[in-house]
Amino acid sequence: MRNHSVVSEFILLGLSADPQIQALLFVLLFVIYILTLMGNLMLLLVIRVDSQLHNPMYFFLGQLSFLDLCHSSVTVPKLLENLLSEKKTISVEGCMAQAFFVFATGGTESCLLAVMACDRCVAISSPLLYGQMMNRKLCMGLVWGSWGLAFTDALINIPVAVNLDFCEAQDSHHFSCELPSLYPLSCSDVSASFTALLCSSLLHFFGNFLLIFFSYVCIFFTILSISSTEGRSKAFSTCSSHLTSVSFFYGSGLLRYLMPNSGSTQEFICSLQDSVISPMLNPLICSLKNKEVKAAVRKMLRKLVVAQR
């Protein structure tokens, strides 16, 4: 028998201990969360309603919007609750569940961004065969495969973490539960869990990153072979929003997991970027940089105005 008291809950110290700053953060993050819900739901609705957007690129874009809704909703509601609460606690089981869904949705987004890069590569390098190659059956299979691979990854990592013992140290210098932030709270050997996390990260996230990298190498050489400036510009414009989303995802993700778990300001910024800011920005980036989406949004708004009259 080990001579320690096992804890049943963690205290998420969050972003600030100052009540006034907490109130300001609650208002700011609540507005961001509402904008995230509205932006992604609107994009999903526009893609669903407008027949001109019924192609693989927008199908994957709709899946990314749905995923952003899920990823943001895993952490933000609990964060908002803690900003108004004095206790700021979460049960160990609840913390593990949150860590599972953070891992699963983040892993799915990594796979989906890789799938979208391959889709753009096929569309630009083989435009005549694009419709035949990227058929609906293949697109559905790629989406389900992304979800399946990410959930399998989470099912490998989280059960290993569940076997960790947590004792005495309850205070987590974070606003959500992620595996790296739980290791300092454990009084047992974390090497097995850390090794599983490291191996899965190398295989999953860096594997997807390499797939994205080589897809864009192919896209780059294809664009160079296009003779007209207009053709090059059009080909590049179809990739710019995806490249921005990839930069946000991998930039914040790599910095978050490579930083020591010290509760520093930079670490909080990277975590907020990943779980709060990016899900809000993705639909804006896709809308502002895509003429077809902007045209579809204007068409839907006009129909709503006419219907109200």
What this model shows, in words?
- With 309 residues, this protein is an all-alpha fold.
- It has one domain (15-308): Rhopdopsin 7-helix transmembrane proteins (Up-down Bundle), CATH 1.20.1070.10.
- 76% of the residues lie in helices and 3% in strands.
- It has ten helices and three strands.
- The chain has helices at 19-49, 56-84, 92-125, 130-133, 136-162, 179-182, 191-225, 229-258, 265-288, 291-308; strands spanning 9-12, 89-91, 171-172.
- Strands 2-1-3 form a three-stranded mixed β-sheet.
- Helix 1 (19-49) packs across helix 10, helix 3 (92-125) runs parallel beside helix 7 (191-225) and helix 3 packs antiparallel against helix 8.
- The longest helix is centred in the last third of the chain and has 35 residues, at 191-225.
- The radius of gyration is 21 Å and the shape is globular.
- It starts with 8 loop residues before the first strand and ends with a helix.
- Residues 1-5 have low confidence and may be disordered.
- It holds the Pfam family 7tm_4.
- This is Olfactory receptor.
